[in-house]
Amino acid sequence: MSHLVSNAATDKISPTLPLTTDQKRLVDQILAFTTAHVNETGPAVFTVYGDAGTGKSVILAHLFNQLQTASRTRPDSPLAKTTNYFLVNHPEILKVYREIAGKEPHLLKKDFQRPTSLINQLAKGITTADVLVIDEAHLLLSQPDHYNNFYGENQLSSLLAAAKVIILVFDETQVLRMKSFWTEKRLEHLLAHYPHQHVRLTHQFRMQASDELVAWINDFTHSQVRPLPQSVGAQYDLRIFNDAEQMRRAIVTKNNQVGLSRVVSTSGYPSTLDGGKHYITEGHFHLPWDQYNYTSTPWAELPQTIDEVGSIYTCQGFDLNYVGLILGPPLTLSPQNQLEVHLDRYTDVEAFKRRADITDAQELTAIKKQLILNSVNVLMKRGVKGLYIYAHDAHLRQYLGAKAH
């Protein structure tokens, strides 16, 4: 699949994008499932599994556009006058979908909601829900979060109690926080008693990288460090840097050429959402972390963010053209070339909130380490055209075959 250079995140998941034959067939399959169950007492669930970059969001965008078009313009459809919502528990992605809604005749900005907002509206009887489409369902809260006004036990359970049909996409390798801790096994256990279908997407659409490089990333983010593959893709630019500032300059050059190119980092540096600036310093490299983005424009589309460092919270779900990734202090390589994850060096305090249902210390440690590796997986798969890497740990840089760029 060819990629056009674009400076707008909306162009990456617009319902006007052409679908492949297989993608169109899947949209039709989900629509048939939806119409078969929408007049039942419900709920019925359709799950789309797939790694980052396998086209999950563009499928949902097409699907929801067709749902709302049928609801609002086709009185003879089983979907006529149904009340449907598109949910995503990620403020930056929500901005993109609402921007898309402003361009489509049968989509309204209010159709797109955060799960907590809709759950609270449903509980108060302000609205009802027939069909719910959930993007990034691995971000749904799976325990109470009173700070964010969610008082239930599990957001998906709350939504199942209200809707007739739920369509969701899920990737357990993008689970990033304990309060939204999921696995495929936990999801399947919750859905076992409902009418349910699922499909698994495997083809990589985002990255113009070779299958070998995608497999290398998947192995790396499961603690299996191997030498980089010889073949990374004829149209893909992979570089390992000895110097973070040199990497930043290379990303700036790419941003000037094609746009949507940014430096991002794992946690492990000073970071507090207190309104002040907190910096990442690596030698001559010295830039502030992104803070909460209060504008309606996605972080990566703001011109000034070329002078910031992005995180999983601003970049998850987004396509960048080129991404420069800093692997921070929590990730080191042992003398035996084993990847080590240091929980005490992770500075994202929100990630590891306590869970009453996970009490085994060994299991808890393993989960926390995998959450950190999941964040690496998310960030490594942002770039359509290229991935640049700088590792804080000198041995890891050396092992990855760093050349002077």
TrEMBL record:
SMART domains: AAA. It comes from the Bacteria. SUPFAM superfamilies: P-loop containing nucleoside triphosphate hydrolases. Residues 42-211 form the AAA+ ATPase domain. InterPro entries: AAA+_ATPase, P-loop_NTPase, SLFN_3-like_DNA/RNA_helicase. Gene3D superfamilies: P-loop containing nucleotide triphosphate hydrolases. This is DNA replication initiation protein. It comes from Levilactobacillus koreensis. The lineage of its organism: Bacteria, Bacillati, Bacillota, Bacilli, Lactobacillales.
